[in-house]
Amino acid sequence: METISLDPEAEDVDLNHFRIGKIEGFEVLKKVKTLCLRQNLIKRIENLDQLQTLRELDLYDNQIRKIENLESLVELEILDISFNVLRHIEGLDRLTQLKKLFLVNNKISKIENLSNLQMLQMLELGSNRIRAIENIDALANLDSLFLGKNKITKLQNLDALTNLTVLSIQNNRLTKIEGLQSLVNLRELYLSHNGIEVIEGLENNNKLTMLDIASNRIKKIENISHLTELQEFWMNDNLVESWSDLDELKGVKNLETVYLERNPL
């Protein structure tokens, strides 16, 4: 492995794809704010406790099994440990300034241990093994929640997320649109590739500009005439049979795109 020389004055350090096998020797970075260690061979999070100025840590695409040894990084705002082999969400309690957390494509089966992250604005947990939406009541500042490609069967426990503007739960096992009544600021809702049969439960989501319910089992376009700010309506690959259903969209003046391909029209 080549020797990497680090500039002690550097604020942004990018060591993407350097075949680094171990995190060591970074203590010299006295001013570092961004540390990118993407696409390396790192197996363990360690030896970072001196980097107390760090705001962003990127460990995407390594071989990390556990979230650990981050306690001293109290200034951290962005953490990405996507594409690793994590099984649990843990070790984040002290990161109270965290605004964005990316844990995509791991082996996580449960949403847990997030209650101290009250500043969190974006949570990305796509492509894991999560079965339930739970333990997110404390995340009152959350703006975006991504849970695509999991094993979630029910829309629930979202009531506390009143500031949420983007919710994505594509490619799961949902059969019903429900539990969204408190999400009055929701602008984008992505529910494609589920088993939803009826458009319903959107009574309070008047600010929606984007509704993606493609690739479900929906037979009728209904219960959306009140979504007057809607711009994008993706409804392809469903079971809609009648063109007259489009009357439901007559009052939606800002509508730009409607996808209806592969319906039995």
UniProtKB/TrEMBL annotation:
The organism of origin for this protein: Tyto alba
One family name in Pfam for this protein: LRR_9
**Which top-rank group of organisms is this from?**
Eukaryota
Keywords per UniProt: Leucine-rich repeat, Nucleus, Repeat
* Major site of localization recorded for this protein: nucleus
The entry sums up its family as follows: Belongs to the SDS22 family.
Q: Which GO terms describe its cellular component?
A: nucleus
What does the organism's lineage look like at the top? Answer: Eukaryota, Metazoa, Chordata, Craniata, Vertebrata
Task: Give the protein name, as stated in the record.
Answer: Protein phosphatase 1 regulatory subunit 7
From the Swiss-Prot or TrEMBL record, state where the protein is found: Nucleus
